[in-house]
Amino acid sequence: MRAITKQERHTPPELEPQRRYKMVTENVSIYYGDVHAVKDITMKFPEQSVTALIGPSGCGKTTYLRCLNRMHDMVQNARVDGRVLLDDTDLYDKSIDPIYHRRKVGMVFQKPNPFPTMSIYDNVVAGVKLNGVRNRAILDEIVEDCLNLAYLWDEVHDILRKPALELSGGQQQRLCIARALAIQPEVLLMDEPASALDPIATQKIEETIQELKKDYCIIIVTHNMQQAVRCSDYTGFMYMGSLIEHGETKQVFERPADKLTAKYVQGQFG
Amino acid sequence: MSHESRQQKRAEIRAMFKSNVRRRLWVDKIMRGAVVACALTAIIPLVWILGTAVYSGLPVLSWAFLTEEPGAVGAGLISIGPAIQGTLILIGLSSVLGLPVGILGGIYLAEFGGGGWLARQIRFFMDVFIQVPSIVLGIFAFLAVVLVLGHFSVWAGGFALSLIMFPIVARATEESIRMVPWTYREAGAALGLSKMAITLRIVLSQAKKGIITGVLLSVSRVGGETAPLIMTVVGSSVFFEDMDTPMDALPLRIWRFSLQPYDEARIAGWGAAFTLLLVIFAIHLGVRYFFMQEHGGKGLRVVLHLGRKVR
Question: Which of A52, B140, B201, B303 lies at a C-alpha separation of 20 to 30 Å from A98?
Fold first, then answer.
C-alpha cells in the first residue's frame, strides 16, 4: 500500500454552500505521544444531515470522531491541534469548559455501555438528572420521548425499573442512544453503533438515525459500507489518518474522485 | 411536532441544567486542593518515620554491625548479624509454609469454590484470621508447636508467621483473580484448554500483579512482627544453629534494644530498624524485578516450569 503524499489529499468541497454548518473542523491533527494518528483534517458537517466516516481499520476515524466532543481530554498523552468549531465556538479554546460542550454533543459508543447499577429509566435520565433536573414530570416525559426516538419504548415501557443489563445487546445500544438524546444534544456522534448488533437491531438503529436526522447533526463512524450508503447524506473516506475524499454519499460511492476511494468502496482493500 | 417546536422544547430542557460555571470552577479548585492536601498529609508520617530511621540508623551501619554477633552491652560492640540472618530465615520459612497455602487457597476460592458453602466458610474464617491480633497467633503457635515439641524453635516462629501470611495472600489472590474478565476464561475454554491450563496460563498471568502485591504486603507484615516471635523463637545472641533452637530476628532485637536504658542500645536499635527497612525494601525490589519486568520478569514461568518438573 502506498503512502499518501500531501498533493494527493483531496480538498474537501464546499458541500452545499448555502447550507448552515453545525460543526466544522479546521486543520485538526491528533497525536498519541509521537504517533500522528489524524493528519490535518478540515471537514464540515451540515445541520440536519448524517455524515458517515468510512475507511479501513486503524485509519483514525474513531480518533477523529472523539475529538469532536473533547473525549481526548480524558486520555493521557493525546494531543489535538487545530480548531473544532461548534456553531462558531472553538471547542478547544482555553476559556471553554468541555463539560458544557459535551452537553451539546451526544455520543454513542461502539459497545453498548449502559451504567450497570442503574435501571432503564435511570440510565436514560442519568445525564439530565445529574445535571440538575429533578422535576419528576419532566423526567418522565424525557424518558418516554427519548425511548420513543430510539425505538425502544414499546419494548421496555412496562419494565422501566428493571436493571439495564437485563436488556439484550441491541436493546442496550438503543438505550445508550436514548441516554445520549436525553441531554438534548445538537450533534450526535456514533462510533460504529451497530457493529455488535444483529441485522434487525441494526435496521432499527438505522431507522432511528433517519428519524433523528430531522433534528440533529449526526456523524457516524462505520465499517459497513452498505450502512453508509443506506443512512448517510455525506461520506468522508479516511486512510492512514488523512481525509482522502469527502462528498455526497452517492457521489463518493458511485463516482469517487480519488483512485484510493474507488478501490476501497469497491472492496479491493480494507 | 415540527423541527422548530422540537428545538424549542429541547432548549427549554437544556435551560434547566445547572450552569453555574464560576461556582463549579471554584468548587473544583477547592476540592482539588483538599485531595492533594489529604494525600500529602497521609505521606507525612511515612516520610517522617523513614527520615528518622535513615537519619538515626545510617550512621550506625558498619560491616561489623551487620555481620557479627552482638556482644554484651558496654563491651563496645553491639551487632545484629544473627538478627538479620534470623529475619531472612523466618521470612523464607513462613513464605514456604504460607504462600502455597495462600495462593492455592485463593485460586480455589476464586476459580473452584465459587459461592458454595465451603468457600463461604473459608472466606469468612480468612477474614476473621486477618483481623486476629498477631500475639494471639503467637500464643497459638506456642500451644500447638512449642509445647508439643517441648522447646522453642525456628519451626514455631515460621509457623506463627505463616498463619499471618496465608489469609492475606489468599484474599489478595482471590480478589485479583476475580478481576480477570470472564471472557478470557471462555476464550481459553473455546480453544479446548483444560481448566488447569486456563487457570495457570491465562488467568494467573493476568492476576500476577495483584497476587505479587499481596505477597509483598504479607512479607513486609511478617518481617516486622514481634509479638508472635516472643513466644516462639524467643531471641538469641548467636547465629542460627539448627531449626530446633531459639533464634534471633530483627524486630525482636529492636524490641530488646529499646528495653535497655543505655544510649548505645538505643542508637543500635535505630540501626537495626533501618536495616529492617533495607531488608524489606530489597525483597520488594528483588521480587518485583524477578516477576514484573517486561523482559526480565520470567518468574512466573520459572515457577510453573519447576512445578512441572516436580509433577
Answer: A52
